[in-house]
Fold this protein.
Amino acid sequence: MKTLKDIEKELKISPATLNNWLKLGVIRLQNTNKHLNEEEFQEILLKIKKSGKLTQRTNRTQKQSLTDSSVLNNHSSKVVLNKIIEITKNKQHPDSIACAICLILLENKKLISCNLIKSKLEIFCPNKTFQNFLNDWYNQDKKNISKLYAEFKSLSFPHNAVDFAGYIYESIRPVADKSQCGAYFSPNQITTDIKIPSDKYIIDPCSGTGSLILNIILKNHDPQKILLRDIDPTALKIAKVNFALFFGSCDKLINTEIVDIINPETKIPDYCNYIITNPPYGLKINYGQKRKLIKSYPEIKSAESFSIALLKGIQNIKPKTKLIYILPESVLYVKQHYNIRKLIFSENHQVKIYFFGQVFKGVMSRIIRLEISYGKQSITLVNDSEAIQLEKDILEKNEFRPPKISNSEELKKIKKILKTPSFNLKNKCKFGLGIVTGNNNEVLNKYPKDNDFFPIYTGKELKKFVFHDAKFYFKYNPEILQQCCKYEKYTQKKICYKFISDTLITAYDDKGRFLLNSINFFIINDNKIPPKALSAFLNSEIVSFIFKALFNSQKVLYHHIEQIPIPNKFYDYTNELENLYNKISSGEKTLINELNKLCENLYN
């Protein structure tokens, strides 16, 4: 007999996805005990495969794209990359393609010589260690590598491009493969201003093809003082070739080792002067692995790969050691990274944070460069306009999140706000989530079919102070909805707020509206806080500034709303705020300036 677990394994889907398909009737079970005979099992698999539910996943694994890089600034290099992708068309393993390219690049630099005789490649190199390494790589897939070498040999490879083989390797790998292991190569502009003395030991514990260090070091650096580690053996092979090309010699080789940074047994050698890395983001691991990792790293209580990599570096901080990490900006602001932030901003750390925005192709995360060294505590934020010095107390008041500010004037403003006597909404309200249908096309209708259909509002209809007319109707049936609150929660008077937003957009609802998941809501349980007055306050410019500075989020989460510092003076002006809400929601938009001035004055 088969079970639902067998369906998950066969189709490689999560329990949540399977549960959603059951609710929507995509999968129908004849037996209530959820056991399937072989015929029923195969029938369900066939139905899912025909439904197109898996199509998007399949496309994701096949997609190829060119990587943004300095290599691609040259038109001829783009042509070569496109020709290589055209020649390979997913027919050969990326490791074999990378080997053929590396052999040609080394040969073009006259570091090795190759003879192709009757589909067999002979490799010669003055350094026998390097020759043995290349032969071992070639011998893993001789036939295909010889064929690829012959096909690629006629192409005009760029002469001085850093990590050309690495960019090809990333481009020919499926998107899902890169996403699965969090492998995205580092753009050059993140590291152009870094200078490292040539006599120092450097390690990159998540090196990939070594491009991060290649773009930093000078030609007189000792190759044997460079240590590269990664879980990807192909990337490390490319890295060994990259550095031979960079130094123009095979006499001295860098040290490479296949090591997993998230393994609790992994240690960074304490003699390294610089720990420089772009650790994997969003590494896909199963629930069991997550539990083990969280248990293994009690200091940070996290299974996030970049947090673990950062912890390993921080544990190595000592005099004359410097950490340089390329990280997602979310490490500074997301609640789950609180513990690693607390470690970053400890008393004996000199911390610099550089902000770069979205610089990785195909990745939505905004990127920072975090530099940590041993010494008297200092915290510096580096923006395009200026470097801003922070005191530790401002971080402690904001769960160790550095304020996202552009200049020192904004820093003065946020300091004054945080010094104002205030309260927050923690334990003063109950939060609720909008409805997730699981299939909007099936559940939502443009017109009500009967009296059991209700209007349901999306984030597009919610504006500050008001709701526009609903565009959809639905029937409230918790049995088929993927996520919903109890009926009574939606029909209560509540404050609604847009979920996907970098500012607060709220409106008071006394009509018992139903909401899709692009709108969430809360119900105030403190009689001293009039909901209209609070909604007006949350819609003000000063609160938008506070939200962006303290939380720097593209999503409005319940704990953000709970933590907004509301001046104690708010209680003295609830009547004025409520009157302004009524007038603005009735169309008197000119009063918004008055509202903004009043709310700013509450913070002195």
Remarks:
- The two ends are 71 Å apart (CA to CA).
